[in-house]
Amino acid sequence: MLLEVRDLHVEFRTRDGVARAVNGVSYQVDAGETLAILGESGSGKSVTAQAVMGILDMPPGRITGGEVIFQGRDLLKLKEAERRKVRGAGMAMIFQDALSSLNPVIPVGDQLGEMFVVHRGMSWRDARARAVELMDRVRIPAARERVRQYPHQFSGGMRQRIMIAMAIALEPALIIADEPTTALDVTVQAQVMDLLAELQREYRMGLVLITHDLGVVADVADRIAVMYAGRIVESAPVYDIYKAPAHPYTRGLLDSVPRLDQKGQELYAIKGLPPNLTRIPPGCAFHPRCPLARGLCRVDEPSLFEVSATRGSACHFWRECLDG
Ligand code: SF4
Ligand code: MG
């Protein structure tokens, strides 16, 4: 197993009290596998990723429990210097907003090249040549000329390609991509997603793809983990989820995705809002919004029930949900 997150807990101190942003999250990613983590904003999916990457640097946030086993080592037990080495070469992250992740005053080729100078001890001359190769690899036209340009001289889609190039530069075993295409137009989204999926296969990387958009993951993910209020509420192979969700929240997300074959049909959006994480509802956290909720749901917090050998659902009434 490449990455195993076990019972991870993250809390934030806020003026309203302690926000339980991540509440016992466990998941696994194998080499060459793509796990999509799906949820609305505020579900804890980005915070989970930041804790795994070791970049949870907001002062009030802290990991209060769990393990992050990467290539056999618990990253949470490593010193920051060792952690940084893992971050440089073992795992890389792609963010939504390339413009704020890239340095605006350094040509993109130098930002790419620097990785080879710092981590591989290359000369600048060789590193710049590698930068051109990489830009070519992520299909940036006229890479040899554009290598000297600055981030603002690229379109949003091209900047995301540069982010992808930086992420794969050192051939990491794992990439975590947090809403990598959310800021882009739909057609550009698909191109960037295809590129990411292609590189992931080529390098046999593990990929954790964080998104609020179920439409993005259908073609690329092997498994989906759905998060709600800091927990995974359903985890299953992507095919199973599309066939029949085993959790009412997953069903709500599925029904919110516009379908090309059902034009004009009104989109079902899940009623209500995700809970304030300082006051997570008792019982099943989803009960105030759930169309299937009943008495038991308000008092008894469901654990992740085994629906099949490869599937779990944190719903007391998962059978009913499966039957539609
Ligand atoms: Fe809905 Fe109850 Fe299932 Fe929670 S446990 S998702 S409230 S039916
Ligand atoms: Mg986020």
Automatic annotation (TrEMBL):
Localization annotation: Cell membrane
InterPro entries tied to this protein: AAA+_ATPase, ABC_Ni/Peptide_Import, ABC_transporter-like_ATP-bd, ABC_transporter-like_CS, Oligopep_ABC_C, P-loop_NTPase
Name the record gives this protein: ABC transporter ATP-binding protein
Species of provenance: Streptomyces composti
Keywords, alphabetical: ATP-binding, Cell membrane, Membrane, Nucleotide-binding, Transport
Family per record: Belongs to the ABC transporter superfamily.
Residue span, ABC transporter domain: 5-254
Gene3D superfamilies, sorted: P-loop containing nucleotide triphosphate hydrolases
